[in-house]
Design a protein that fits this description.
By secondary structure, the protein is mostly helical. Helices cover 54% and strands 12% of the residues. The chain contains twelve helices and seven strands.
């Protein structure tokens, strides 16, 4: 690069797409680069803590977090080599391109580890029950919730044109796809063990317990909220209303406390039915709905008529957890 006329030896010229711009002191750029590197390392460390795995090949994690909008943007500017030049998985390890290949791999690996875990944990289930529960656990909706719970959206690498307002970072399809890609990277870097450990903690966890309980109770699989609403409509009691009461824990390990109340005919929230806890708002709402349903049915049996429940008749029904 030609020196800038009048510049000192400590100065150098920078440019964007060949355009000459004002040169800046070399040591200032060094400081900026160090700050960027330190920020990237801090972000990686935070995400690795949530994943429970320290990547030996950080390029895999970078690739898993790269949305096609950024890959396309860089390809248009000629800033990244084509993936064809990286055979045998070297593109993933180098962080080249977008995360869609890793998404394909992660989907398959997750299905395997969840199927194996359910097979071991529930020897009493038949094929149909195993299939139904696995489908719920690996669904895009559930994976988006898991991604949100560990703050994955904050780490996504998006094109500038797509990152306005941060809406793409919160989009469920983007989150679920990125979650699968990260699991694919986790498998390539550490094998099945770290993927299985993450799946048992975040993908299964309390969600798997709730689904197992629903199978036992005969409730609508994966949806206690719908079951509670149907029960309240059948008894002409009103409609459920959910409110977040509190949040606790760090961003990658949030806990939500949600209460469900009965909205009466005058549209005012009535008696509290129950409270629930969960790692996401939706999990907490499902837990609250499950507890409310159990209490309402128990109160109906005590009253001698399971089909008719008088909300608020029993103080224990409205008790908190």
């Amino acid at each position: 690069m030609e020196p800038v006329p009048g510049a000192s030896p400590e100065m150098f010229e920078t440019g964007v797409e060949g355009q000459r711009i004002k040169s800046v002191p070399f040591h200032q750029n060094q400081i900026k680069v160090h700050r960027i590197e330190a920020h990237v390392e801090a972000v990686s460390a935070e995400l690795e803590a949530a994943l429970g795995h320290c990547f030996a090949h950080t390029g895999l994690l970078v690739r898993a977090l790269t949305h096609r909008s950024l890959a396309n943007e860089r390809a248009a500017k000629g800033q990244a080599p084509g993936e064809q030049a990286h055979a045998g998985g070297k593109a993933e390890a180098a962080g080249v391109g977008d995360n869609e290949r890793l998404e394909f791999l992660g989907d398959a690996v997750l299905g395997l580890v969840v199927a194996e875990a359910l097979f071991q944990l529930h020897p009493e289930w038949q094929e149909g029950e195993l299939t139904r529960v696995r489908a719920q656990l690996v669904s895009r909706q559930h994976l988006a919730e898991v991604a949100a719970a560990i703050g994955l959206g904050n780490h996504l690498r998006l094109g500038r044109g797509e990152d306005k307002g941060g809406r793409l970072r919160r989009k469920s399809t983007v989150l679920s796809n990125a979650m699968e890609a990260v699991l694919g990277a986790l498998f390539l870097d550490g094998g099945l063990e770290p993927v299985s450990a993450f799946a048992r903690r975040w993908v299964m966890g309390e969600a798997a317990e709730q689904l197992a309980e629903q199978l036992r109770s005969g409730a609508a699989l994966g949806n206690y909220k719908s079951a509670l609403q149907e029960h309240l409509q059948a008894t002409h009691a009103g409609a459920p209303v959910y409110r977040v009461k509190s949040e606790s824990g760090p961003d990658h390990r949030k806990r939500f406390l949600v209460e469900v109340r009965l909205k009466t005919a005058d549209a005012l929230p009535g008696k509290q039915l129950a409270r629930g806890m969960g790692s996401t708002k939706k999990h907490a709402e499902q837990d609250a709905a499950r507890r409310a349903l159990e209490r309402l049915k128990a109160a109906g049996k005590k009253a001698g008529n399971a089909d008719e429940v008088r909300p608020g008749a029993n103080k224990e029904e409205a008790a908190a957890l």
